[in-house]
Amino acid sequence: MINLNHAVAFQHVLWDQQLKEAQTIVDMTCGKGLDLTYIAQKALKKASIFAVDIQTEAISLAKKRVNGLHDVHFIQASHSEVLPKYITAPIDLAIFNLGYLPTGNHAIHTQGATTIEAVKALLKQLAPKGLITLVAYPGTEAGAQEEVELASFLRTLDQKQYDVSYWSPINQIHNPPTLYIVKGR
């Protein structure tokens, strides 16, 4: 059953379809490795998986979580600095779980400007029919600002090249996470 009240769980439906053929997968904000674990369990054995985070703590937590599931290449850097410096292959699936590391320093938060830089770089490397998912957290001031900036940018993408969608529960309180979907045509 699809979890229709939470963006993080809902996006799994999209990932499952993409993972059937994805060769290059990038978790642009690996955090504690929860999304990364899901992907590592479902990805093709021959797929290349990359996990990115700016925080040492996040990389360490994610490595422990996915240990033995799949060969994952970890990159400690800002998501805005990864492409094409560390990854040059066409990207079939890229995921973002924006915000801050829940168990970490909440002052270290993804920013609209760097997230948009990362998405722009991804669009240049996105494989035909490639997929990008971004979960935003408008429940904090920083998260709300990042979401406004991200949504404004995504609205400008050429509809001849990309399908861009937005998904959000509408009867939930406390500004729940929202999901942005970019699919190459």
Overview of the structural elements:
By secondary structure, this protein is α/β, with parallel strands linked by helices. It has a single domain, classed as Rossmann fold (3-Layer(aba) Sandwich). It has five helices and seven strands, in the order H-E-H-E-H-E-E-H-E-H-E-E. A seven-stranded mixed β-sheet has the order 3-2-1-4-5-7-6, with helices on both faces. Strand 1, helix 2 and strand 2 form a beta-alpha-beta unit. Helix 1 packs parallel to helix 2 and helix 4 packs parallel to helix 5. The longest helix has 14 residues. The protein is globular, with a radius of gyration of 15 Å. The model has no long low-confidence stretch (mean pLDDT about 95).
CATH superfamily, by name, is Vaccinia Virus protein VP39
What count of helical segments does DSSP give? 5
Q: What kind of oligomer do you see?
A: single chain
Taking pLDDT < 50 over at least 5 consecutive residues as the criterion, the unreliable ranges are: none
Percent of residues in β-strands = 15-25%
> Radius of gyration from the CA trace?
15 Å
